[in-house]
Design brief:
Helix content is 43%, strand content 15%. The protein has 286 residues and is α/β, with parallel strands linked by helices.
């Protein structure tokens, strides 16, 4: 899980990606936040429990500034699974940000805090609590005195085409991928160029669990290139799938020990050297 969190943060930490996500999900695509107006929030908050100090850190958090004036703190929390205590987590992060303002005498004007929960689940919609009071059983007589606190959950896999089309950063590839995965349809990439190839490949490697993305990331086949389009990466992914399909057929034929490589090549209409090469990629056939 830590590896997945790091990969998600790695892409979202880029100012253009961060601003793009916030502008689309909060403002319907209006470019209200400019990437040059963002500054990383590097302060982690502490809390005491069991007589020990613990550190709590948002997934990604940035100050939105107008010159030297802070307009707001915006934070992202990434979730691949539902968390029924999410309102408690969010209010602890937001409360810590407000406490820092309260304790900082240098701050002349306080600013609001907004947290976005980005839910990447594809099998079910978010049914966990979206407000603080839903986390408890509150006696009716007490309810009027308990302050509620709502959280902002955005279900990435359930975004519609119109919303996804508003993304201008590399996050559009992520959103489209999760939508396709949820609909169980083929992911059809565009010719749009990727800006942060390294960060995007890391994110796809951990989110898909597919060794192809990990391989091309480690080998540097794409990450050091300029002008890489998502279709270039996916075409390689499809080709690998075809090769794996061939390897599976060849493995079954060779396992039967009834056919030689030459005979298999003749049946599959493949060059003998290609059959031998594919067979060598399968450990038990090498």
């Amino acid at each position: 899980m830590a590896e997945k969190d790091i990969a998600e943060k790695n892409l979202e930490a880029w100012n253009d990606v961060f601003a793009d996500i916030a502008n689309v999900l909060l403002f319907g695509g209006k470019r209200l936040i400019k990437e040059e107006e963002l500054e990383a929030d590097t302060k982690d908050s502490m809390f005491k429990a069991d007589d020990e100090l613990h550190e709590q850190e948002r997934d990604v958090s940035k100050f939105w500034k107008n010159g030297e004036i802070r307009i707001s703190i915006i934070g992202f929390e990434n979730q691949t699974r539902q968390d029924y205590k999410m309102p408690l987590r969010v209010i602890s992060y937001d409360g810590a940000s407000y406490k820092q303002q309260f304790l900082d005498d240098k701050i002349k004007k306080n600013y609001p805090v907004a947290t976005l929960v980005l839910y990447f689940g594809t099998k079910e919609r978010w049914t966990a609590p979206k407000n603080l009071c839903s986390c408890f059983e509150i006696p009716e007589d007490l309810r009027p005195f308990v302050s509620d606190y709502k959280i902002n959950v955005f279900e990435i896999a359930w975004l519609d085409d119109e919303t996804i089309s508003k993304f201008q950063s590399d996050f559009k590839f992520v959103a489209k991928y999760f939508q396709s995965k949820r609909l169980n349809t083929e992911y059809k990439p565009t010719n749009d160029e990727i800006k942060h190839v390294d960060a995007l490949l890391k994110m796809f490697a951990v989110l898909t669990g597919d060794k192809y993305f990990e391989t091309i990331y480690n080998e540097g086949n794409f990450k050091e290139k300029g002008g890489v389009a998502m279709c270039d990466i996916v075409q390689g992914f499809v080709k690998q799938g075809r090769d794996e399909g061939k390897a599976d057929v060849i493995r079954k034929m060779l396992d039967a020990k009834a056919l030689t490589a030459e005979q298999i090549a003749s049946i599959l209409k493949l060059p003998v050297e290609e059959v031998k090469k594919i067979a060598q990629k399968v450990p038990e056939l090498a």
